């Protein structure tokens, strides 16, 4: 649908890929960078240049929920994303680690869609 297979990414299955594409679409021109794409799922509150709060916002977007569920299955995977998730779990509590790994997945999805390149682990 978008020219690349998102299911090659560890943790992303067909349902997660279709949820992302259905909510976001394949036209990423409105989001200039991967940071903007990841922040669209809910991040820090910023007004102008002042940070109002860095606590992760509650987000009702189905894509954010799908990416968090995809992240939770990375626990036992022997891949770079699985190792990243386990490192984050060692540093911080589990909900924050899930959010950090989901953000990494979002940035990875953005770069794959915009560059139209296949994912290689």
Describe this structure in words.
It is built from 5 helices and 2 strands; from the N terminus they run ααββααα. It is mostly helical. The protein has one domain (6-115). Strands 1-2 form a two-stranded antiparallel ribbon. A hairpin with a 2-residue loop joins strand 1 and strand 2. Helix 1 runs antiparallel to helix 3 (62-72). The longest helix has 22 residues, at 94-115. It is globular. The two termini are 22 Å apart.
Mean pLDDT: 79
Helix content: 40-55%
The domain tally reads 1
Radius of gyration: 14 Å
Number of strands: 2
Give a quick summary of the entry:
With 121 residues, this protein is mainly α. The protein has a two-stranded antiparallel sheet with strand order 1-2. Helix 1 runs antiparallel to helix 3 and helix 4 packs antiparallel against helix 5.
């Amino acid at each position: 649908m978008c020219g690349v297979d998102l299911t090659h990414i560890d943790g992303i299955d067909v349902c997660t890929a279709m949820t992302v594409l259905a909510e976001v679409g394949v036209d990423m021109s409105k989001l200039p960078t991967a940071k903007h794409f990841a922040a669209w799922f809910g991040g820090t509150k910023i007004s102008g240049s002042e940070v109002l709060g860095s606590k992760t916002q509650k987000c009702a977007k189905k894509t954010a929920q799908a990416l968090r569920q995809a992240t939770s299955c990375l626990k036992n995977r022997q891949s770079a994303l699985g190792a990243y998730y386990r490192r984050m779990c060692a540093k911080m509590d589990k909900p924050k680690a899930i959010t950090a790994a989901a953000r990494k997945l979002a940035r990875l999805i953005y770069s794959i869609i915009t560059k139209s390149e296949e994912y290689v682990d």
